[in-house]
Amino acid sequence: MPESIPVRKVSVKNANDTQMPAAALAAADHVLGDARAGLTLLEYGGYECPACIQAEPLMQHLLQACGKRLCFVFRHFPLMEVHPQAELAAEAAEAAAAQGQFWAMHHLLFSQPHHLALARMTRHAQSIGLDMNRFNAEMADRIYTQRVQEHRRAGERNGVRATPAFFLNGAPVDASFGLGKLEEAIRIALQVAPHDAVKHP
Q: Which three-class secondary structure state does DSSP give residue 30?
């Protein structure tokens, strides 16, 4: 399955990460949209998180609605305490990323959140045409655990405690009472007239 939007590496604007080198963190990021966009929306999320699952269609809609004005970055923040399969799912996404198919796996994981067992994720990998010998070996060796944990540590340093957590050009956006706050923040930041405001998909 080809990826519909090119993946680019960018540094998230105004991020507060102080322990991990910014270049290393940016290299582990997954980006959709134009790297030259004036706005960068960063989400910390997990594939087993119900609120992240609900937010996923809106993320896709915002990218379509805002076009080249918005760049979207996703970082892993698996809450293993309540979502025991979330970390392994994030590692599957990283294994897919190593073969240039992060977003294909990302969308599949969010589309079937109740089926995150390794056997199902292996079928996802087959469906998007991954090299299965490589995928299986990397998952067995858990070689992406550290990268996923680096994402989570970066979120913790930025004050993330729950998911999804959003940052717009480095500033936190509280969407705990509804994603409308996020849409409003993006509209204001883009100085979009009220009649042009982004709407729910």
A: strand
47: exposed, middle or buried (C-beta count within 10 Å: 0-12, 13-18, 19+)? buried
CATH assignment, 22-196: 3.40.30.10
**How far is C-alpha 188 from the geometric centre of its chain's CA atoms?**
23
Tokens at 138, concatenated: 């990397």
Helix, strand or coil for residue 53?
Answer: helix
Q: Are 57 and 201 in contact (CB under 8 A)?
A: yes
Is 98 in contact with 135 (CB distance < 8 Å)? no
Domain boundaries, the chain: 22-196
Positions of E strands within the chain: 30-33, 39-45, 70-76, 165-168, 171-173
pLDDT per position as a tens digit, 92-147:
999 999 999 999 999 999 998 777 999 999 999 999 999 999 999 999 999 999 99
Give phi and psi for 44, each to the nearest 5.
-100, 120
Sheet-wide strand order for 70-76: 30-33, 70-76, 39-45, 165-168, 171-173
d(CA 180, CA 102): 27
